[in-house]
Amino acid sequence: MKTSTLHTLMVAKSIYRETKYLANSGDKHACTAGIILLQDFVELVVLAALDELDIDEQRALESKSFDELLGELKKQKIPIIKSGTIKALNKQRVISKHYGQLAEPASVVNYFNVAVTFVDSLLEKVVGAKLSEIFLTDILKDGEAKDMIKESISLSEQEKYLDALIGLRKAFFTSYEYEYCVYAFRDRDENDNGLLGSLSLGASGGMKAHYWTRNKQWIAKNVSKPIDYIQINNDQLKTDCMEIGASTVDIENFRRLTPEVVRTEKDQWHFEYSSTFIANELNIENFNYCLDLLIDFLLKKQEMDSSRRYPKIEKSIPAPPIYIDKPVFKEPSLDSEQVGVVEENYYYNVDRIVSGFDPSERYLYVHLYPQEEKSIFEGHIWGYLLIEES
Questions:
Q1: What gap in Å lies between CA 381 and CA 374, rounded to an integer?
Q2: Residue 62: enclosing H or E segment and its boundaries?
Q3: pLDDT tens digit string along 56-79?
Q4: H helices within the chain, ranges in order?
């Protein structure tokens, strides 16, 4: 589905929610307002369908009447059910809006039911789903966060607002907030500055938390409950929001209006919320507000991530030869600390080629590791090996 189509349908859904209440109120004045909105709702869905079919690319639609828009659908072999009633709805809307004539509640309910049937039939033909099955999440990339949001929407429809809001916060955690979770560092000593930390722990999150929180000594003193593993660096959060194009205030609001969550192990979730939260925020208004904030943030983050470009790695060249007993240095300099030597029973990877602090020297940045399997990273060496010109 095209993004423009989806956004039009989301506007139509917002109008639909208002129309449903008005059309079924039983009050003549409310029903008359409802029939005016009902026609707007139907017309927006028709325009969304034509957009999806690329009709607007072929001919201007803004100058066409409602009947002509329906005609464009027929030209595309799209079946139009209840077309007579739908056209009558348009005429009733003109009478009510331009001449102030009140509509009969029974007629409005009939128009409403026919309009919903018409819309669902049209959308199933064009996009393969009924209106109730279409969400802004449809343009999110498939993945864990998207699945969590869809489940939250389903829970909200069952009025299970606490679980629904927890689900939204889980989606936020898996997409972004995990980067402030220091759980992976609970066994790392504060004096461990080796590559083990960045290679084996960074992938689990926590790298955006303040550096002093990323060790077992700090965690032992400061983490008294699971949620304490989340350590937000507010300066980093603000920087990320500016880069993504999201509002820091919106993200702060989202974090305040959803329960706090943290994931420690794969399927182990922990949460926390206040008693006043239960009393005040478990409602559809808060859920919809938080849902809109979350999707807006994730779409902007998704757009930013998709714009990143990296050097291609599909092709490679043979690894340059390295020689037994040659020294490996901590920095690209012969005066640097020696961290090891090339041993005969080692494998190696060459990651980069760099010039040394002496510009006449060139080095290989290498990863050496024993052929015999040992415990994780035991015997591994990272460092710089001087390239000796032959």
A1: 13
A2: none
A3: 555 666 767 888 888 888 888 888
A4: 3-23, 28-52, 55-58, 66-75, 83-99, 105-126, 144-157, 161-175, 195-196, 216-222, 234-244, 248-256, 275-280, 284-307
Q: Output the pTM of the full model.
A: 0.63
| Measured distance CA(246)–CA(286) in Å, rounded | 19
- Residue with structure tokens 């999707």? 295
Residues, the chain: 390
Q: Which residue reads 């026919």 in tokens? A: 114
- Quick one: CA torsion of 295, 299, 300, 301, rounded to 10 degrees? 100
Burial status of residue 77 (CB atoms within 10 A of its CB: 0-12, 13-18, 19 or more): exposed
The neighbour count for residue 354, using CB atoms within 10 Å, is: 14
The whole-angstrom separation of Cα 16 and Cα 19 is 5
Half-sphere exposure of 148 (CA within 13 A, CB side): 19
Interatomic CA distance for residues 36 and 155, integer angstroms: 31
Q: 3-class SS at 15? A: helix
